[in-house]
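Risk register update: the risk of archive-format incompatibility is retired. Evidence:
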Amino acid sequence: MPDLLVRLYDLPENTAKIKCQQEGVTIRLAIAPELHIVQDFVEKNFSKGWASEATVGFARSPVSVALAVENREIVGFAVFDATYRAFFGPTGVLESHRGRGIGQALLIEALEGLYKMGYGYGIIGSVGEALGFYQKCLEIQTIEGSVPGVYKGML
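Archived output:
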């Protein structure tokens, strides 16, 4: 699947974050002491590669990893400005917590983070089967010729 382009200066209000907070799910940026917890969560529930990307997010200042936390447990995450500058992803929400708006809240939180870093546009890389999700959440444009894009030759 191709990469997507997002206008960061025209993001929708993060109403999903408000809904999550009302349901007891906090959406926030991670802090340095949480690195090992996030690495373990991402590797256990998603992949080692995604855990590597999250680790890079912790090397940024400010940290470029957003978390969804419920009852002091991580239920979702989103990384930005890690794989490549201005890129969003990877992101994931525990299967048991999907359908509650957590993914959308994390997406907008992370894209707002990119905007605060000074980017006017963000790139969602290689969206795969999640295209419908992004179309539902944002006004996006497909970047023609972006397959395999920056992932060409990746191990």
